[in-house]
């Protein structure tokens, strides 16, 4: 059997290929010259398998897609409060290259506009680090997200640096406000280098999957950043990642995402998948025209939308009843199954509360449980403790150590 | 055993009770006079059980919390395109009572600011309906969300209508732009009536749970609105529901939410729970001070954040192997378990693709599956079809009709 | 001889008549129906003579041209500080009917936008006056500016009041902020009545001439408002009277002016003339297309621009020398001429300082002086006092009482 | 006799000296170190006499006061249309160092904000000139305004260039928009040099007087720029020269003016005087605190306000009657006096029209006229032509060539 997933992706690609509207980014000569017809989509699972269709191995530069990953590194290195001292997290309602600072302060509006991203790149590594070391941290960190050593496209880097007037303007302004304290020209060089890292659509899908996977690279198993960092980065991508305005993307697509002017777009659906699309022609917001259409189709057809709740869970309580248990004797057995979050565990506790166990011995069987989150774990532990206080003996069957 | 959930909620309440900062809404005399010390929290499960702590049965008026529900009714009655013709979905970055229209158009920025909510109230029911009928639809619809007949607090309604200068200003402006076409004074009366509906914190938790439950009221089982409507409403609550700026709430709390100036706040986490808090003292954004703190604690301590992915799923493939099956004979049995979304089904298909079944007979056992979403269902059906094309005989064991 | 002035005006009219671009105001049915081809220009001297060309006796409604005159009445009745408490004087950069308030306050940006003008209309008369009395004051005051009893065009008034949605929106908002304290509907009725006063182009030229004349109506000789009021009104007309932006009008025309949507424009050049134009087709700013063109031509061709300095004054010192004077004997005679402002008097004082009088008797002959302003008067008086302190005897010949 | 003018200025200085609020500019170390107590005022007449009080010979740097003069040079060199292609003339409502561009274009809002002034400095001289030549033109031109060779304060220049982060930001942005096409660093160097020119309060008064005098330096008699250039520059100073908002300055002071962060302020009243004040402590808008107070007093006490009309002119018609004239015989003599602008000449023409000359011979005696503007001249010429067409013989007595 051929996997229907790749077939489906090929079908989506074909369905969107006819849209040749938009145009390559024109302000960087190297991007203007790129082959406009390239088109690729890739979906990476949290187990590291990548489904793809189209030109998934063609190299292009990350451009603004580097922003959320450097944002993640800066948060990992400095912590959230230090980061928020410098950069806010509000959608700007303005184009990506505006010199937008938060009113009454010297903070860029968010880390996804250039002013914020340039500042972010100076928050990677130690406070007293050199710019050379910061660059090594960025290169190493983004490579860890990708699971392979990334390299700079030197032709794009040179081309981009020569015409980096607006970024120089932004950096000088940030220097004027002491928002950055290093040499503006050198800071812009680092930032431009980060934008010039070469990736494939496949790379990007895996980088996005690392975010969807809570910060652990699916292939290498390396923890690149911690879960709270991922939560913050995905939140910011949700409101500030696409377009100048947050509402349209959240309602229509509902996937935390980021676009780059070379034509790439990434999306990360927490706990599910990372995805990436590549097509160089851009819309008026600077996002890939066909990339946006692919995202819309995946959101609608595959239910990949933050607000798309799974169908209400059937009971996680697989079995509840009194029977003989080997080595224990007569016991009330509660066998749970599936994924235990607040809602499911609450149901079990509800039952325990309304109708207490009918025998002094209680078995809590978690062998069919495949996932539990922190609140679920704490609720179950508390239930075990309370049943003990009620004078019952509780035996927990937990071969996978779900409650540890 | 006492349920630890209510105990936990009581603990949260106690932890936040000390914050007596803020002040009652002062521009409506009746609200100014409310008892500032009231404090309640409630969490409603999708099965309709409500955990609560504090003054969960004290009545207060919905105020702006009515907005997302009337938004839902308007979407249900008119459809999304007709709605978007009149009202945009972008966060306004402005206070709730500003006369903010989208630049260059006559569309209010979103349905959560007053200009948008007043317009929304005229989009409920049929286009040629009378305002009296629109009111009946609003009253009936919001009662359906709550699962009981709601009533107007006539004292608040009168008090509010007398001082409704700004809403009258907004309505006259909207009339000037033909965004609304009915009498501005009568439209404001209907809108004020909707804001004056009396609810308890318990009611609000169930109304929120109806949204979390995809539009079906957990207690009555009534489908109040369709799933696409819920998806749109929750998306808009995410970016426009709290505060003037979207980023702060999404990063810090990450729950689609809405506040009202009487002191209520609701939150709805899709597929999980509805929650509600009540405490009359407001912050500078017009949201309940203690209500916001409770939301922050629930988000952090209970993992109730949109970006909080559950721990990566263990395999949904409970069993894969060749064995004798009653009434079939030797077969390769694939037994699935848990909740089947894209990611899980993809793993099964991946296995089927990499290592095809070793016998001509295949059993797909879904009896341990408790949930499947539309893309998972389609992927499994397609797999069954393809295995058939490959010449295999596939027996689907699906006692709950998961693939129907 | 026929006066070349009227011929010149006829020539200007003819030169601009070909421009039939723009369109009548369309939001008030009565204005939409007006004859679009009407065209008139009038220039009123400070002696009350009116030169005109075209349809100078056709009646139309004042609309926003009423604003500076009601502004003048409010300043006269309440004084500048009380007025500034309620309304600022900054150009708004926004369209005339926006609900623009100064940021962080509840003051309309200036008295020329509708929010400011509506508020202004409530500041006429005594603070505790009724709206009926305020209307009488407005009607009487504007009639005094015109030099005849003005009347309301009842058809326009009714038509305008029926579609006054935006003004009602503004008034309700102002009421919400307590910027106005009277019934919004009644305030808008008064304001609409003021806009519906009927005038001819000739009337408007005389009303403008009253401002140019320091507040004294040239024909009736009545002092309608005081000089400081006029100075404030003309200043505000300069920056806020035309278009949404101040710079363009000040640089290109440089005449304090105000337009109305019925097609009228007035201009007042202090100390020189009042002018008025009428042509109903409006540009995108709501100002008469041909009216603006006429103003531009008059500014350029007649040197009617605030920055157009008269050619540098020849000496105001007509004679300086020692001779025999009847009844006095030998004296140093200083005979002055023309208009004495700071610059001219300074020259005389300069001479007296550099080269003191050569005789103990000094004659200061002002019989050829036709005008002196307050600083010139004070400087001359001080010079007389100082010459006395120097031991000289000063005889002032001042048949017109210029120094009194 | 001592001139009362200087005494008056000394009195004004003394009256304002007590206000020691505000603080030196702090972002340029050299300015921060300046003696805060310095205080000077100077008034220059159009004949080149300078009245002064206080530290009128202390040197300080022009800073933003250089802007209107370089604006004048650019207009003189390139013409108004070419200038307006690059820079608009609207007040920005923003602080002087904002990167404000006109919406939807790449034009700085006006030549008085830094973005506009930096662009303006590249429009001096020929389009293909080098930056070195542009600097020579700026240095030469500003020296011509002052009437002496100005020099750069090298310490301030270096200090300012080192901390010119925001101006570098602005210049890079302008380069990014192709609003400027030269090297941003070199452009900022030229601009900073222009700001660092050293002047005294006396110098500034004469530079302002050159503007008030229509572009002719009062002492040297050199025409520095043409009258239309002066008209444009003074118009822009009126709306954009002081503060971020135009209305306040125009209403309260009404003098075209410009301030600099070293503490200087200039004002130019067309046809009357140039004035300058110096006091280093600045208000929140970056204008000298005591400088603003002095301007307010001069405006109020000396009637130096654009809207302050001189008292209505007495008749310019000194004599009208039939008498014997030497060498002509019986003639109707019209003897005019004073300054002839539109208003005065119109009166004479009015008389000639209403009551035609009673003899075939007419004498028009202009020997007592000391000034006539272009429209007055054209009106009189036309009257002479028309009287000739009516069959009359007109003898013009014009010893000063007023009608030429």
Descriptive account of the structure:
Four copies of one chain form a homotetramer. Chain A is an alpha+beta fold and 404 residues long. Chain A has two domains: 4-301, 3-Layer(aba) Sandwich (Beta-lactamase); 317-397, Transcription Regulator spoIIAA (2-Layer Sandwich). Helix content of chain A is 42%, strand content 18%. Chain A is built from 15 helices and twelve strands. A five-stranded antiparallel β-sheet of chain A has the order 2-1-8-7-6. In chain A, strands 9-10-11-12 form a four-stranded mixed β-sheet. The first copy, chain A, starts with a helix and ends in a 7-residue tail after the last strand.
CATH class of the largest domain in chain A: Alpha Beta
- Number of continuous helical runs of chain A: 15
Helix/strand order of chain A, N-terminal first: HHEEEHHHHEHHHEHHHEEEHEEHEHE
- Terminal Cα span of chain A: 40 Å
The CATH superfamily name of the largest domain in chain A is DD-peptidase/beta-lactamase superfamily
**Unreliable residue stretches of chain A:** none
GO biological process, one term (chains A, B, C, D): L-glutamine catabolic process
Binding site for substrate (chains A, B, C, D): 64, 114, 160, 167, 191, 243, 261
Family (chains A, B, C, D): Belongs to the glutaminase family.
Catalytic activity (chains A, B, C, D): L-glutamine + H2O = L-glutamate + NH4(+)
């Amino acid at each position: 059997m051929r996997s229907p997933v790749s077939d489906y992706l090929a079908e989506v690609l074909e369905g969107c290929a006819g849209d040749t509207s938009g145009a390559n980014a024109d302000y960087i000569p190297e991007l203007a010259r790129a082959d406009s017809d390239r088109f690729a989509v890739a979906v990476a699972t949290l187990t590291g398998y990548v489904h793809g269709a189209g030109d998934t191995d063609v190299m292009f530069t990350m451009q603004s897609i580097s922003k959320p990953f450097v944002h993640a590194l800066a948060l990992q290195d400095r912590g959230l409060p230090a980061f928020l001292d410098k950069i806010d997290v509000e959608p700007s309602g303005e184009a990506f290259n505006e010199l937008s600072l938060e009113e009454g302060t010297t903070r860029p509006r968010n880390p996804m506009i250039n002013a914020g991203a340039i500042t972010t790149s100076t928050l990677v590594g130690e406070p007293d680090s050199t710019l050379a070391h910061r660059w090594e941290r960025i290169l190493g960190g983004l490579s860890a997200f990708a699971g392979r050593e990334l390299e700079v496209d030197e032709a794009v880097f040179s081309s981009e640096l020569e015409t980096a007037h607006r970024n120089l303007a932004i950096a000088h302004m940030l220097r004027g406000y002491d928002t950055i304290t290093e040499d503006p020209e050198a800071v812009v060089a680092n930032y431009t280098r980060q934008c010039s890292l070469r990736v494939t659509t496949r790379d990007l899908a895996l980088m996005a999957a690392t975010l969807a996977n809570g910060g652990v690279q699916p292939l290498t198993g390396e923890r690149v950043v911690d879960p709270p960092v991922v939560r913050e980065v995905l939140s910011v991508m949700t409101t500030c990642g696409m377009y100048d305005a947050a509402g349209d993307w959240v309602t229509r697509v509902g996937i935390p995402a980021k676009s780059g002017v070379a034509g790439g777009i990434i999306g990360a659906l927490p706990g599910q998948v990372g995805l990436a699309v590549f097509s160089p022609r851009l819309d008026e917001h600077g996002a890939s025209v066909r990339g946006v259409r692919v995202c819309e189709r995946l959101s609608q057809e595959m239910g990949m939308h933050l607000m798309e709740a799974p169908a209400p869970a059937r009971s996680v309580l697989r079995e509840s009843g009194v029977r003989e248990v080997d080595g224990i004797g007569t016991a009330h057995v509660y066998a749970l199954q599936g994924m235990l979050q607040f809602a499911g565990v609450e149901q079990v506790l509800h039952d325990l509360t309304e109708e207490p166990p009918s025998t002094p011995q209680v078995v809590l069987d978690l062998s069919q449980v495949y996932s539990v989150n922190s609140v679920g774990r704490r609720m179950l532990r508390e239930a075990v403790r309370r049943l003990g206080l009620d004078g019952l003996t509780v035996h927990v069957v937990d071969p996978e150590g779900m409650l540890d």
